[in-house]
Design a protein that fits this description.
Number of helices: 12
Largest sheet: 8 strands, mixed
Structural class: alpha/beta
Order of helices and strands: EHHHHEHHEHEHEHEHHEEEEEHEE
CATH class of the largest domain: Alpha Beta
Oligomer: single chain
CATH architecture of the largest domain: 3-Layer(aba) Sandwich
């Protein structure tokens, strides 16, 4: 069996990274509208809670995307190059990419995730299922850069590159930030051989009565996922957030075409961390995530503005979700 490689570019235990994380969190918590990047939802426990969310009846994106890919897998395989380096952004449990292996026949699978230890475990498990496939896990924060290690780029030199970004995670980024991320993905694809491109899942605009329960489920799993961020912030920042002082809030902003997730103070709360104090009045909140919803034509325009060709797109029967292939 091939032993998976692992490159840890994001080390939350290094002195420099710790300082940068503390500075970023402090800046966000001290803004008039306190905000924390959704990437801090995904510590080891947060990653597992998100996997549980994808199993909930209210959370349609994962199963709908899976249905689209299953129904159109032959067409997707005809569009994408065989023997490619499959670069999986925000890989998590790696299950979505694994469903593509038989049809796409990648030569090298490269899952990327900020939750380093969780990724390490899942890659080792997946390698046992596919012992002949080369796998290289990369622990990194791809939201700000998408540069793979030189050693790894040398290994995939000449191969087509397929960047896989499922789950509509692109929705976490405001349109201008999404364009910047897609431009970085395009630059990465340009380093690959002929036929390189991006395979991406995108959630579509739909009524709020469908959208809102997907982010505020009856069992409260999404609430736990959101509240767990406070424990992760405590660990990273040395703050004294108490999850029982806060409640999960999620709603669809039709004007901005996005779901917003917040943590709202149940009563007046004083939060402290080294060198700082922030008072939250009852009802005061921390903005923790956006999830923008797109139209097919609007997202096609976004892809083209980032340098990709006009995409081929597939949707489900209800037009709730979409999958796009765009070449370089």
């Amino acid at each position: 069996m091939t032993t998976p490689q692992f490159y840890q570019l994001h080390d939350s235990n290094s002195t420099a990274v710790k300082a940068a994380i503390r500075a970023e969190l402090t800046e966000g918590l001290l803004k008039p509208q306190a905000a924390v990047s959704p990437k801090y939802l995904y510590d080891a426990l947060g990653s597992r809670l998100f996997d549980a969310i994808t199993e909930l009846p209210e959370y349609y994106p994962t199963r709908t995307e899976g249905t689209i890919i299953a129904q159109h897998l032959t067409a997707i395989a005809q569009q994408t190059p065989k023997g490619a380096a499959l670069i999986d952004l925000g890989a998590g449990s790696c299950e979505k990419a694994a469903r593509l292996f038989e049809a796409l026949k990648p030569a090298h699978y490269i899952p990327i995730d900020i939750s380093v230890e969780y990724l390490r475990q899942t890659v080792h498990c997946l390698q046992r299922e596919y012992p002949q496939m080369r796998m290289s896990g990369v622990g990194m924060d791809f939201s700000s850069e998408m540069l793979l290690p030189a050693e790894l780029m040398a290994q995939i030199k000449g191969l087509p590159i397929v960047v896989f970004y499922p789950g509509s995670s692109i929705g976490n980024f405001a349109p201008e930030d999404a364009r910047a991320l897609l431009s970085r993905a395009h630059a990465l694809c340009k380093l690959g051989g002929a036929g390189s491109g991006l395979l991406i899942g995108v959630d579509l605009v739909k009524p709020s009565e469908i959208l809102e329960p997907a982010y505020d489920d009856a069992l409260g799993v999404t609430a736990s996922f959101n509240l767990n961020m406070l424990l992760n912030i405590n660990n990273l920042l040395g703050s004294n957030f108490a999850p029982q002082d806060w409640q999960h809030v999620a709603f669809f902003d039709k004007q901005l075409s996005r779901i917003e997730m917040h943590l709202q103070a149940k009563h007046d709360v004083t939060v402290t961390w080294p060198g700082h104090t922030r008072e939250f009045k009852r009802g005061g909140d921390i903005h923790t995530e956006n999830s923008y919803k797109w139209t097919i034509s609007g997202f096609a325009d976004l892809l083209q503005s980032a340098g990709f060709s006009k995409p081929t797109s597939w949707t489900d029967a209800k037009d709730w979700f979409s999958v796009h292939w765009a070449s370089t």
